[in-house]
Amino acid sequence: VIKVQGLIFRDKAQFELGEKDIPKISTPTDVLLEVKYAGICGTDLNIFWGNHPANPNTILGHEYTGIVKEVGNAVTCVKPGDKVVIDPNIKCSTCFYCRNNMENQCNLLDKGNALGIFRDGGFAKYNLAPESTVYKIPHDMPYESAVLVEPLSCIVNALNIAKIKPDDTVVVLGAGPIGLLFTNIVHHIASMTIVTELEELRIERAKKYANYVFNPKEINVEEKIKKLTDGVMGDVVIDATGVLFDDAIKLVKKGGKIILFGMNYGYKGSIHPYLITRKEIKIFGSYIANKTIMPAIKLLYHNKIDVNHYISEILPLDEIFLGFKKLGLDVEAKKKVPVEALKIVIKIGG
Ligand SMILES: [Zn+2]
Ligand SMILES: [Zn+2]
Predict the structure, then answer these.
(1) Any idea which ligand is nearest the CA of 121?
(2) Phi and psi at residue 282, in whole multiples of 5°?
(3) How many CB atoms lie within 10 A of CB 145?
(4) pLDDT in tens, 270-285
């Protein structure tokens, strides 16, 4: 049996560069991919710390792009040689939610079946994906752009929910790759974009698009936004971190919207329903992509996103632990270290 090297999630706080069998087409709708690039996501770090569920012994990597090697005999949307990106979340297409424009709430997803989290994903040279998850991209679309399709598709879904208007003040909490992608798009629409972030590197990056970037360690953000908005506060507050709900409540205007995007299973927050009722605050969850893979491909293909602004470094699979380290996780020592990078992309195939 021929093996493939991959980043395997063994158990909580156990990542290993190990080997698994090269996958084979086993159903008529399978697509065998040669993975080219895969991004490290905050979710991968959450999986390590036990703040996001995942199946043990799974090859991680849910943001990936590559080339079709082989297809099952029922596959019609791609052929060998096509360049593709993956929507890692496998949907059934027939449940109540799939049939009512909410495929991101598909009943199948409750069972946990995402590629790169519950089934083998893109941190390995070969990957087996169902046809429904495979999207063909233009042959001249760079892999550096394609690898951002999955995270951007989730952001497009959140923006569809947020319905930002031209006179809005939008507050983005957190300027990691996700917060920065939000800021990049939001500043084209909203009149004022304000970002909060603790890490110096990310603060500098956010300044390219935001009107104001505040470090809550140094500045009373609530007071600042009060001043900037004549006491009104943010029309829309986006929590890109998953742990700043309490801040969002303080920073949103009466009748304003909070978009909860970042996910952290361990964080509960303190909900004070009185404030939500009194101020008629509208709270929206935004989960993964909902028919937004193709819009994300379009945005990236037409160069609306400066990918070099997000991708700090492209490393080979052998050096993936270095990539995690730059993102604040020392895998071997099992401890947190200072963040030194934004998006880290792993180059997988030759
Ligand atoms: Zn992700
Ligand atoms: Zn479904």
Answers:
(1) 1
(2) -105, 125
(3) 24
(4) 888 999 999 999 999 9
Q: How confident is the model over 71-97, as pLDDT tens digits? A: 999 999 999 999 999 999 999 999 999
94 Cα to the center of ligand 2, angstroms: 5
Nearest one of 242, 281, 236, 282 to 261, comparing CA atoms:
242
Give the Cβ contact number of residue 220 at 10 Å.
10
The DSSP code for 22 is: P
Q: Is residue 350 scored above 70 in pLDDT? A: no
pTM for this model (two decimals): 0.93
Q: What is the pLDDT of residues 27-76, one digit of tens each?
A: 999 999 999 999 999 999 999 999 889 999 999 999 999 999 999 999 99
**How many Å lie between the centroid of ligand 1 and the Cα of residue 227?**
35
Torsion of CA 86, 87, 88, 94, to 10 degrees: -130
DSSP 279-290: TT-EEEE--S-S
Q: What is the number of the ligand closest to the CA of 103?
A: 2
Q: How far is the CA of 98 from the centre of ligand 2 (A)?
A: 4
Residue 41 CA, ligand 1 centroid: distance in Å: 5
Q: For residue 159, how far is its CA from the centre of ligand 1 (angstroms)?
A: 17
Which tokens hold the place of 280? Answer: 């008629």
196 is written with which tokens?
Answer: 């909060």
Residue 82 neighbours by CB under 8 Å, 6+ apart: 67, 68, 136
Bridge partner list, 238: 172, 259
5 SS3 class? strand
